[in-house]
Write a structure and sequence with these properties.
Radius of gyration: 19 Å
Order of helices and strands: EEEEEEEEEEE
Shape: globular
Number of strands: 11
Amino acid sequence: MCIRDRSITYPTSRESLLITPAWTRTFGTDGNSTDQLYAVAIDSGNNIIAVGEGQGNLTESNNDDLAIVYKFSPTGTLEWTRKLNDENDDCYAKSVVTIGTDIYVTHDNDDSETIITKLDASGNIKWQRRTGNSNDENSGIARTADGNLLVVAEGYDDDSNENALKVFLLS
């Protein structure tokens, strides 16, 4: 049974359900590539951080399977784009979280390790940490209430010979 709140005005047409964006941008590594975004976050300056996979020419050479980070201003201007891996390393950026203007991204590498990368507000890589576990995939990252980072990865556990969820706390 469906109960409708009679005090709410419901849209009567498909057009009334459409969103009118404040701005729209088209971007990517090049016109012939298949780039994909997987996660987005907002930093303390209301900048938009988007992460995913790039398949084409970024800046220095033609690359394939790049873990890509894009930073947009609050008005949608592309501030910078960074790759996090070596070219043709078959990986992509999977999740992102910000603390202030610092950016933390999870991605993987050819060895199927989860990698956590910290970038500053200008896109400079400050450090990278590896989980040290092969066969990790489907990683995610979150900020805890006390400012630590919680990383989760799904992967194969050699000890149990089964898939397992792995959780890492970075302080």
